[in-house]
């Protein structure tokens, strides 16, 4: 490790590795990771939409454990909404279940191949800030404290990010905008191998339970709920109840707990000399809790803007603002805004209202949404009017995302 780089990236998750790979095409980059091994332990259900992933990285079977052709959403009354690749007019698969241990490591390998120095067991402990400009990172590595200078720092240190706070960026969460997740890796579970199953309603305390297949009777079975719904109850209690009903024969091979942002975009995620990406910037889909491809998209934009700042010898917010503007204007940025409002709406629905809404959506093929079907939907679910604009934009943006890739 040198004592000066053009760009230092803190955190080797999908966001950090993508930022490091992109910036390393033109700059000297250091990527640091506090854990001893990149990609482990996994705290994720590992699902990504194909349309969101393609364009960021070429799908490789060595880190794909399942090919998903449909999402099935189960209402509290048992009604099932089947969203299949065929119904969406998509050829092949709709999504993948990753093997993140391998995926995250491959992304870091790509950064190394592009020329980045990658260091594990290397923790950022603070920032070097001079005259209001971030000029590097304070680092602890194997008991040794170091100061490494840089022109740009990219904070990709995940949901528990400290980098943003050290820089004085307000990254505080509202309790209702934090999702708490718990998940078993289970075996002996009889699941459709090509379907991601999602169960909504009070059985998931206002969040949802998921069953994401990983092949050969193996699945990620988990539950995520808003932290504001905890009220003394524990997500694991809800999950255990769900598992004993759904998979009485299931056996546990792993248990993880974690949290994730389900918030609207932050006021700012940059300051002089620094950009935040991924969960650290709250760039996660508020409705699904998915943040892998959001982090990668943000990482790619931040990596490009860091290169520009280095070339222009100017890493002030004047130059770094391009990151914030581009990300906000991207499909991911727009989806975050709309999905936040839809999430805020969905958590207000009772089991009856959710079931009714899902019953009304059943049978409407996305390509066939027209004035008459919308009128029928609103007549049966008047509350939907509150988010009609967001639903319409959501469909438009989802179509654009599919076409873009
Ligand atoms: C239970 C659960 C299920 C989920 N399921 C899905 C899903 O199915 N699909 C999906 O898209 N998303 C899912 N997510 C969200 C997804 O995991 C995150 O959005 C994604 O990992 C964000 O990537 P990132 O690069 O921003 O951060 P992370 O992947 O969290 O990476 C941050 C890295 O920074 C490192 N780090 C932290 N602090 C420091 C420091 N001081 N110095 C050095 N390194 C540091 C960490 O060790 C970590 O490796 C889930 C989350 C949870 C909790």
What do you see in this structure?
The protein is an alpha/beta fold and 405 residues long. It has 3 domains: 4-43 and 101-173 and 266-329, FAD/NAD(P)-binding domain; 68-91 and 175-261, D-Amino Acid Oxidase, subunit A, domain 2 (D-Amino Acid Oxidase, Chain A, domain 2); 336-404. 33% of the residues lie in helices and 28% in strands. It is built from 11 helices and 18 strands. It has helices at 14-24, 50-53, 100-113, 163-166, 235-246, 292-311, 317-329, 331-346, 351-361, 371-380, 388-404, and strands at residues 4-10, 29-32, 47-49, 64-68, 70-74, 80-84, 95-98, 117-119, 122-130, 133-141, 144-155, 178-187, 195-200, 208-215, 218-226, 251-261, 270-271, 274-276. The strands form 3 sheets. Strands 1, 2, 8, 9, 10, 11, 17 and 18 form an 8-stranded mixed sheet that branches. The chain has a 7-stranded mixed sheet with strand order 6-5-13-14-15-12-16, sandwiched between helices. The protein has a 3-stranded antiparallel sheet with strand order 3-7-4. Strand 1, helix 1 (14-24) and strand 2 form a beta-alpha-beta unit. The chain is globular, with a radius of gyration of 21 Å. The relative contact order is 0.16. The model has no long low-confidence stretch (mean pLDDT 92). Residues 10-16, 32-35, 43-48, 123-124, 156-158, 162, 181, 183, 222, 258-260, 278-280, 284, 289-292, 295 line the site of flavin-adenine dinucleotide.
